[in-house]
Amino acid sequence: MNEQKLPSVAYFSMEYGLHSDFKMYAGGLGILAGDYIKGAKDINAPIIPIGLKWKQGYTDQKIDANGNPYDSYHNYVYDFLEDTGVKVTVKVRKTDVVCKVWKTDYFGNSTLYLLDTDIPENNDAWITGQLYGWFGEERIAQEIVLGIGGVKAMRALGIPIDVYHFNEGHAALAAIELIREKMSGGNTFEEAWKATREEVVFTTHTPIKEGNETHPLDRLEYMSAFNGLTREQIERIGGDPFNMTVAGLRLSRISNAVAQLHADTANKMWKEVAGRSDIIGITNAIHTPTWVDERITQAYEENGDLWAVHQEIKSELIDFIKERSGISLNADNLLIGFSRRAAPYKRSDLIFSQPEIIEPYLESGKIQIVFSGKAHPLDDNGKKIVSNLVAMMKKYPKSVVFLENYDMTIGAQLTRGSDIWLNNPRRPLEASGTSGMKAAMNGVLNCSILDGWWPEACIDGENGWQIGDGFETTDFEVLDKHDSDALYDTLLNRVLPTYYENQAKWVQMMKKSIETTRTEFATKRMLDEYYNRMYIK
Q1: Using an 8 Å Cβ cutoff, are 40 and 522 in contact?
Q2: What is the pLDDT of residue 4?
């Protein structure tokens, strides 16, 4: 990339994971966005991130005395945010809503601009209250502020933009504002749409159709989201009900999925959408200074004692677990990490599916597993998964741990200090999965279904292990049995013997894990690809 000629990119995301205590994130989408804008700062790429200043962030999710999750919310104040002095106005339900614009580069990131409706002149302070709190009118209001307000903020700040990048469909209304601008300058709708497409690129993350957000046109109209366009024009862009992902695909000149397998899945999923942009694969990556322990990097680069360094970091994880849960794990025994959103397709509890097989290893402590993850506050199925994991902790108190209120701190501890990083989603429903990259670069060996990023990285038996053979079926009962059999086979017949009987091989695999991922799955490669394949025409 030639720094002098890089186009400036407005990057829209509903969430940003920059630091554990900066509650602007919920999960993987935000962590990716946070890593992306740190990586952009590292190479001085002209990326201008835009988001919302969440007063309460995502849920704090604790476990009650009965072992069930409950949600609580707190108001957060951040003294490092700078007031830009800029305010912009958007319409929500035909009423003016004023959005104050803050900025920060406090975490070594490209300057992040955050819109805030929690100011005295608004009756609508609630809009930027809770991240992903609700799905209906509240969500549309938030997306009006992010998309329409975000474009207006760039204009008010005087920041020239060449490319508008939507990280997921939440920002699709930004393109509606771009179309409105062009029509107010004299263009027809067709001309404005065509010109807008030339400026917009779009990233889709959700390989489950039901997970892609839709809104009835009547609700969008009631919320003032048409933004000067007609009902027919809005329907042509996103359909009825209006699908935010379909809109993103039709409003962009090019789109991307977040791994190569995910690109195949997304192209199949959206093949019926007329007038959509091509979907290419650009695999996600991580900001290595944020996630990789410097001691591991040093030991790897200087050919030091990788095992001793790993054991030191593992001991710190065990201390952290004791402090958070009261449970003392054994540093000499295999420790498996599993931290991710409590969604059914991720199958957090697959390892418990055949108790007669796994129970002896849990009772002896030969296998120790540490879980963490939040369910969406309105997702009862996700909450049942969390409750089940807590029940397993009570059943196997010496070997199973659930760490409540998952955040970036827990994620970092687990991806640095575990021995094995377990990942067993229903293929092909895991879009990418960056936690495995963090583990791999820390010498924590992946043991994973061939889904998301892992098919691109896995050299089975050399830098980690594959579970199964890429088997797919829509019959989940058949798939879950197939994959649990494969999981036990890999874990008990390959992972355990290597860990307990062949430490030299294990260390060799740790080195190979680091070697094969540290460049390929770092943000520099990802940013190069976005510029060369998406941003630069």
Answers
A1: no
A2: 62
Q: Is 48 left (phi over 0), alpha (psi -120 to 50) or beta?
A: beta
Tokens of 257: 């999925």
Is the alpha carbon torsion for 432, 506, 358, 366 positive or negative?
negative
In the chain the first and final C-alpha atoms are separated, in Å, by 13
In words, the CATH class of domain 3-286+525-535 is alpha beta
Residue 474: which residues within 8 A CB-CB, separation 6 or more? none
To 5 degrees, how large is the angle CA 338–CA 339–CA 343? 105
Q: Which helix (H) or strand (E) holds 290?
A: helix 288-291
In what side-by-side order are the strands of the sheet with 82-92?
Answer: 82-92, 95-104, 112-116, 47-52, 9-12, 163-167, 200-203, 254-257, 278-281
Tell me whether the CATH fold assigned to 3-286+525-535 matches the one assigned to 288-521. Answer: yes
The model carries a pTM of: 0.97
Percent of the chain topping pLDDT 90:
97
Residue 21, classified by CB atoms within 10 Å of its CB into exposed (0-12), middle (13-18) or buried (19+), is exposed
Residue 114 to residue 57: CA distance in whole angstroms? 13
The domain made up of 288-521 has a fold known as Rossmann fold (3.40.50)
In the chain, DSSP finds a helix count (H) and a strand count (E) of 21, 19
Tell me whether residue 496 is exposed, middle or buried, using C-beta atoms within 10 angstroms of its C-beta: 0 to 12, 13 to 18, 19 or more: middle
Q: CA-CA distance, 340 to 353, in Å (whole number)?
A: 19
Burial class (CB in 10 A: 0-12, 13-18, 19+), 405: middle
User: Cβ distance 266 to 249 under 8 Å?
Assistant: no
Is residue 134 very low, low, confident or very high in pLDDT (cuts 50, 70, 90)?
confident
CA distance 490 to 466: 8
For 362, the token pair is 């849990």
Q: Are 443 and 513 in contact (CB under 8 A)?
A: yes
Could you tell me how far CA 123 lies from the centroid of its own chain?
A: 32
Name the token pair of 525.
């490669």
Residue 165 has pLDDT above 60, yes or no: yes
What's the pLDDT at 212?
86
What are the boundaries of each domain within the chain? 3-286+525-535, 288-521
Exposed / middle / buried, residue 74 (Cβ in 10 Å: 0-12, 13-18, 19+):
exposed
